[in-house]
């Protein structure tokens, strides 16, 4: 007998979040994930990936549901956020030749922009393909700045 209601979706969300944490940390075992074990704090790049990386993009009904799910699971709900749907290597390569500071990617990335409306306490999501601007430190992205609008 199949489960009914929101439970299958919630269960899938937790499984995907656990898998995401394992992949983002570069570990195969969940117990080795720096997000789940006591000890050294995650690096600023780890925090950047936890907040902005989702590859492949988690399936959801629409971008609004996607934004609500992702921000809630990452405990960043109530804030605007952008999720980048590309491999960690491709994202980190933005800063490969860069000094510390702001850098605009050469490649275009598939992203989902999530805007929070505090009046309705809900998200509006948009899928875009854009270049992105990040802050680099030690040849790794540590902060998402914005997406870059296509130039005419």
Notes on the protein architecture:
The chain contains four helices and five strands. It has a domain at 45-148: Ribonuclease A-like domain (P-30 Protein). The longest helix is centred in the N-terminal third of the chain and has 18 residues, at 7-24. Strands 1, 2, 3, 4 and 5 form a five-stranded antiparallel sheet that branches. The chain is of the alpha+beta class and 152 residues long.
In brief:
With 152 residues, this protein is α+β, with helices and mostly antiparallel strands.
Count of DSSP H/I helices: 4
| Largest beta-sheet details | 5 strands, antiparallel
Write down the secondary-structure element order.
Answer: HHHEHEEEE
**CA radius of gyration:** 16 Å
pLDDT under 50 segments (min length 5)?
Answer: 26-36
Report mean pLDDT, rounded to a whole number.
Answer: 83
CATH domain fold name of the domain at 45-148:
P-30 Protein
CATH superfamily of the domain at 45-148: Ribonuclease A-like domain
Family: Belongs to the pancreatic ribonuclease family.
InterPro entries: RNaseA, RNaseA-like_dom_sf, RNaseA_domain
Signal peptide: 1-26
Keywords: Disulfide bond, Secreted, Signal
